[in-house]
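We close this part of the discussion by returning to an individual protein. The encoding preserves chain order, so positions in sequence and tokens coincide. The sequence in question and its structure tokens are set out directly beneath this paragraph:

===
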Amino acid sequence: MFGGALLTESVRNGIDSLSRRLGADILVVPHGYDKKLQAALLRGEPSTFYIKGDLTEKIRSLPGVQKAAPQLYLATLNASCCTVPIQLIAYDPESDFVIKPWAASALTRPPEDDEIVVGSSIIGDVGNELSLFGQRFKIAARLDRTGMGFDTTVFMTMRNARKMLRAVQEGAVGNYQPGAVSSIMLGVEPGVDLKNMANSILQRFALDYNLDIVVSKNMISDIAKKLSNMSYLVYIVSGAFWLASAGILFLFFTLLLHERQREFGLFRILGATRKKLAGIVLYEALGVGLVGGVAGVAAAIGLTLPFHKHVSLTLGLPYMSVSFGVAAALGLACIVLSIGTGLAASLYSALKIGAGDSYLTLRRGE
């Protein structure tokens, strides 16, 4: 139960983080790359794709579009910070409204030439240098953990990225054309129907630019639906384990009472009251529940914490570990439930103790 609760709450945290940081109402991407974009945002799976850069100004001039910000996605296979490919995202500080607002807590000014901002999982301290596409960049700031693909992403200005791309060998970054971008983040005016806006963009530009549209509200809704389905599964499995545990404990204490008839009969002859004997059983049940609950919580922590990144990749959902306070509250609740289950399972045995004749009970136990 504790492991399932940690998993569910961590994914819920990740979705909340995504909702706060995504910022855009509509995302414009090349046709067929909508899933690639989501994978880059949610899990940091590196991708490189392009659309013509002049599309940004055309979309920005549409009625109902409040702001438009281009982004450039590059997958780098060789980086001094990592042994695996990482995602590089370039943005325009002047027009950006997605990355700049929440990155301001780490860096209050735009990155200068040859400066980058890195996600929380990128190795390297502020002030160190990283090698990207054979060029050196200085780490200007490190972002807080988001539970998204941004944690394994390197951010730089569009000017820096294009300067870097002019210097790399042709073909090293796919079919890049000067001025190209990867996606366009749109913020629409209040009251504008997102579906109508998306259809309008596709009707005007899809044929010439080969586009796909991602509506962020729909994307978050789909992710929330996956969380809901996962939560139901977790609840069903947890409930089944709880019922099985309660049944096993009930059987355990019933058999224990039968095996210890002679012991309890002897206690009765020596003057122990039924209340005293019931207390012995209940204290034992309390101990079983406490030890089992603590051991279960410890085992869940040992299984979830070291492998949270693998869990996140396997689920394909944003994953952000819960705070210590929330984890402690969940753990305490599960331990209390474990103790309550043990006491409830032993209650029948505790009430039945000493109900018969003590001497006959003693003889039956021989």
Remarks:
- The CA atoms of residues 117 and 140 lie 6 Å apart.
